[in-house]
UniProtKB/TrEMBL annotation, chain A:
<feature type="transmembrane region" description="Helical">
    <location>
        <begin position="205"/>
        <end position="224"/>
    </location>
</feature>
<feature type="transmembrane region" description="Helical">
    <location>
        <begin position="51"/>
        <end position="73"/>
    </location>
</feature>
<keyword id="KW-0812">Transmembrane</keyword>
<keyword id="KW-0472">Membrane</keyword>
<feature type="transmembrane region" description="Helical">
    <location>
        <begin position="128"/>
        <end position="150"/>
    </location>
</feature>
<protein>
    <submittedName>
        <fullName>ABC-2 type transport system permease protein</fullName>
    </submittedName>
</protein>
<dbReference type="GO" id="GO:0005886">
    <property type="term" value="C:plasma membrane"/>
</dbReference>
<dbReference type="Pfam" id="PF12679">
    <property type="entry name" value="ABC2_membrane_2"/>
</dbReference>
<keyword id="KW-1133">Transmembrane helix</keyword>
UniProtKB/TrEMBL annotation, chain B:
<comment type="similarity">
    <text>Belongs to the ABC transporter superfamily.</text>
</comment>
<protein>
    <submittedName>
        <fullName>ABC-2 type transport system ATP-binding protein</fullName>
    </submittedName>
</protein>
<keyword id="KW-0813">Transport</keyword>
<dbReference type="InterPro" id="IPR027417">
    <property type="entry name" value="P-loop_NTPase"/>
</dbReference>
<feature type="domain" description="ABC transporter">
    <location>
        <begin position="16"/>
        <end position="242"/>
    </location>
</feature>
<dbReference type="InterPro" id="IPR003593">
    <property type="entry name" value="AAA+_ATPase"/>
</dbReference>
<dbReference type="InterPro" id="IPR017871">
    <property type="entry name" value="ABC_transporter-like_CS"/>
</dbReference>
<dbReference type="Pfam" id="PF00005">
    <property type="entry name" value="ABC_tran"/>
</dbReference>
<dbReference type="GO" id="GO:0016887">
    <property type="term" value="F:ATP hydrolysis activity"/>
</dbReference>
């Protein structure tokens, strides 16, 4: 961790208009939950559905994408990253710092909004709110790491990230059972399912697979990011 | 905050060495077998756009691996070695800086990233050096191009580096700012720092650098004292176009003098291939007076950099 790098990155992420991009989806989630509560009253089944499809299925990967790529890709694109890299600081430390910033943003925003939305709809019934909050927290951290890596691997990180989230996790994961094992979304749901006792909800991926998978993917992505940063090359205009 | 305990290099030499360095991208060769040693003092890296100056500079700054050959700083490898930044300050060509920071915050962050013992003092000193103290409270996004350039220089100088690498530093500066930065660069060179800056403008290099390295099409075309380069550039054949009241008369007289090797009459006037520049420029007005010919226009026709550089190349390969 380097506090100066973290400070600059937080400022870049939270300053001015950027923050609205991050806050938009969590606010939408809570607003949706509030609306459903007004119309239908408390309903555990609706809560589970909203959490599965919107909180974990939509908001979490998009937040991960915005924060994970946002902490590094724009800086690489416009060259400002040189300010951080041309310093006697090891590149892996810079990678870890960027990860911590992205993960903390996703985790806080996703967890808080998920808990608020689930609580609005289901109260503390069957541990739905707690389960999905934990799922969002850990899933968000894993997403942040993966999309951070994507941000240093390719200049088209956002496009690749959207394709991953929509096509792989959304479509392929929805129809091909085997693909579900390799989906952060499913791991997050597995965690939520384990904590909650809701009858409306069950997942296929076991906790014994999901947790090691999340840990390995997260650590692997951050380490790889550090290695990529060590070899980051600048190509001049000539 | 990271602080490393390893002591900085005690010998403040600051010699950057490239040994048979090449860099290619796929089939395109950007830098071709360049060997050069950059020592204390100001060195100008001169070459037309696209000559590979930035590529070369990036290899010296640890932001690009040579495809072959080695780049070292005081004998130590540059690539994959973040410790070199204790000694190197880099001013990249790209204008982008964190616009949301103030000049002060930007330079201070640089000092803190270097782990300097008193970052605020160092930042103040660096901003003072580039005369940006007054504007340092403003966000960088409100700065002019020249101000951004200066604040970048301040950030690169904050740790008092032995080596300073600047990529096209004078681009986009107004004349006053340019003079000021030139002065600063010259002063730092006199202090014994190793300073390398790239430029595609000969006059810029000439005014600041005591030593010039010329890069053309990825090749190391010439190297030496600026007077030497200047002399070789002045010695090359020049093509002049002269318009006068009696072109034929003037042409006849010109061909009789050894300062020119060829004279031709064209629609636009007399074209003179000049081999002895000094003699020709002294001769022409005198000759015109003696012949009672009025000179309307005397213009060098091949003063573009490309021709100058290609002459230097052909000179160095001879």
């Amino acid at each position: 961790m380097n506090t100066v790098v973290a400070d600059i990155t937080y400022r870049a992420m939270l300053g001015r208009k950027r923050i609205w991009l991050l806050v938009l989806l969590p606010v939408a989630l809570v607003a949706l939950a509030a609306l459903l509560r007004l119309v239908n009253g408390q309903d555990e089944q609706t809560a589970v559905l909203l959490m599965k499809s919107f909180a974990i299925g939509t908001m979490l990967p998009l937040l991960g994408l915005i924060a994970g790529t946002g902490v590094i890709a724009p800086e690489i694109e416009d060259g400002t990253i040189i300010h951080l890299l041309a310093k006697p600081i090891s590149r892996p430390i810079i990678a870890v710092t960027k990860f911590v910033v992205a993960a903390s943003l996703v985790a806080v925003l996703a967890a808080v909004s998920t808990y608020a939305a689930a609580y609005l709809l289901a109260g503390s019934e069957s541990g739905v709110a707690t389960g999905f909050t934990l799922g969002a927290l850990f899933g968000g951290v894993a997403y942040a790491a993966v999309f951070l890596l994507l941000g240093v691997l390719t200049r088209h990180a956002v496009a690749v990230g959207v394709i991953y989230a929509l096509v792989w996790e959304g479509v392929v994961g929805g129809y091909v059972p085997g693909a579900r094992k390799f989906s952060i979304q499913q791991w997050a749901q597995s965690l939520a399912d384990h904590v909650s006792s809701s009858p409306f909800f069950s997942t296929e991926v076991t906790l014994g697979f999901a947790i090691p998978a999340m840990v390995i993917v997260t650590i692997g992505a951050v380490v790889w990011t550090g290695q990529r940063l060590r070899s980051l090359s600048l190509t001049g205009d000539d | 905050m990271t602080t490393t305990t390893s002591s900085p290099v005690t010998t403040r030499r600051g010699v950057v060495e490239l040994a048979q360095v090449s860099r290619w991208y796929g089939n395109v060769v950007a830098v071709n077998d360049v060997t050069m040693t950059i020592g204390p003092g100001v060195t100008g890296l001169l070459g037309p756009n696209g000559a590979g100056k930035s590529t070369l500079l990036h290899m010296m700054a640890g932001f690009l691996a040579p495809s072959s050959g080695t780049a070292t700083l005081d004998g130590g490898r540059i690539w994959h070695n973040h410790e070199i930044y204790r000694q190197i300050g880099l001013v990249p060509e790209k204008e982008a800086v964190y616009g949301f920071l103030t000049g002060w915050q930007f330079v201070l962050s640089s000092a803190r990233l270097h782990g300097l013992p008193s970052p605020a003092d160092a930042a103040r000193r660096a901003l003072d050096l580039v005369e940006m103290t007054d504007a340092s409270g403003r966000r960088i996004e409100t700065y002019s191009k020249g101000m951004r350039q200066r604040v970048k220089v301040a950030a690169a100088l904050v740790h008092d580096p032995q080596v300073l690498l600047l990529d096209e530093p004078f681009n986009g500066m107004d004349p006053r700012q340019r003079l000021h930065l030139m002065d600063l660069v010259r002063r730092m060179g006199e202090e014994g720092r190793t300073i390398l800056f790239s430029s595609h403008i000969l006059e810029e290099v000439e005014r600041v650098a005591h030593h010039i390295e010329v890069l053309v099409a990825g090749r190391h075309a010439a190297s030496g004292d600026y007077r030497e380069i200047r002399r070789r550039m002045a010695d090359r054949p020049h093509l002049f176009r002269v318009r006068s009241s009696d072109d034929r008369r003037l042409a006849a007289a010109l061909i009789g003098d050894p300062s020119s090797s060829a004279v031709s009459l064209t629609e636009q006037g007399v074209e003179v291939q000049v081999t002895d520049h000094a003699r020709f420029t002294a001769l022409l007005p005198r000759m015109a007076r003696d012949l009672a010919v009025h000179l309307w226009q005397v213009s060098p026709t091949d003063e573009d950099l490309e021709s100058v550089f290609s002459y230097l190349i052909s000179g160095s390969s001879r």
